[in-house]
Amino acid sequence: MKFWFPFKKRPPLVAVIRLSGTIGTGGKALNDEGMAPLIEKAFKRKKPSAIALVINSPGGSPVQSSLIAARIRRLANEHSIPVHAFVEDVAASGGYWLATAADQIWVDESSVVGSIGVISSSFGAHVFLARQGIERRVHTSVKSKSMLDPFLPEKKEDVERLEGILGDLHINFTRQVRERRGTRLNSKQDLFTGEFWLGRRAMDLGLVDGIAHLHPKMKEVYGDKVRFAHYGKKRGLLQRFGSTIMQDAITTIEERADYARYGL
Asked: What ranges make up the beta strands (E) of the chain?
C-alpha cells in the first residue's frame, strides 16, 4: 500500500512541447494562435523545472516564427524557467528561429540545422496565357497593388522592392540569432548565407550546444527520477473524420516540398 505525504518533495518535472511541421497560418501549420494555449499551459501547470522544445521544422512564416519564439522567451523570463531545445530531423530557417528561443540547443549528429535566410518563391504564367490567347486585365487605384502578379511580366522595380523586403527580414532573423546565441557563434565564418549543416558541424559553428537526446539529457541534468509532461497539437474531431481532407492533402504536399529542400 502506498501512502501520500503532502510535504514530500516530488522529482523535477520537464514540460515537453512538440513543435513539428511547417510554420504558417494553415490548419495543420505551426502558428502562434494554435500553439499559445499549449505553451502557456506547459509553463504554468505543475511548476515545471524546465521546458523542453522538441523541434522538427523546415521553417515557414518569419512572423509566426517570431511570435512563437517571443512567447516562449516571455514566459521563460516571467517564470524563471530554463528552456532546452532538442532538434530531430531538421530545425532550418524558421525552425531554427524557434530553436533560438531556448537557452541551450541539442541535436542529433544527423540533424539539419541553419538555413538562416529568407526566401520568396512564385511562378510566371504570362507566356502561357499569351500562347493560349488569354489577355490578363488588371486595374488598380495605385501603382504597387499588382506587384509581382504571376500572370503579368515581371517588373524590375517590383523585384528590387521585394529584394529590399527580404533583406529587412533577413536582418531581423540575423538579429534574433546574434542576440540569442551571442559569443557562442563562430566569428570566423559567415553563418548567415542560408547554408545549413549537420549536427556536429553546427555545434562547431556555435549554432547549437551539443549532441544529445531528450530523455538522457534531461535525466543527466535533472536526475534519473525526472518526470515528463508532454504537450502537442491535437487534431479536432471533424479533422480526424475528413472534413478538411483536400486542405490537408495540399498542406502535406507543400510540407513535403519544404522538407525535401534539406534532403529529408
From this structure: 13-20, 50-57, 83-92, 104-107, 112-114, 196-198, 210-211, 227-231
